[in-house]
Amino acid sequence: MDNTKKIDNTDTPDFFSKEMIITKKTLNENQLKYTYQKQLISDLDYKHKEWSKFVGS
Predict the structure, then answer these.
(1) pLDDT tens digits for range 8-28
(2) pTM of the full predicted structure?
């Protein structure tokens, strides 16, 4: 019994780029940068909320 499927439709979109290759190392570095930036924004939001408590009094 053959469980493999063959896609004959050429209109299906590619899930990869034929012009660009991203290494696993680069992908991991970008993920770490994203996580770091997300944390910075979260910290800034928290600091802004704390600051607004003092200004509003």
Answers:
(1) 556 656 666 677 777 889 999
(2) 0.47
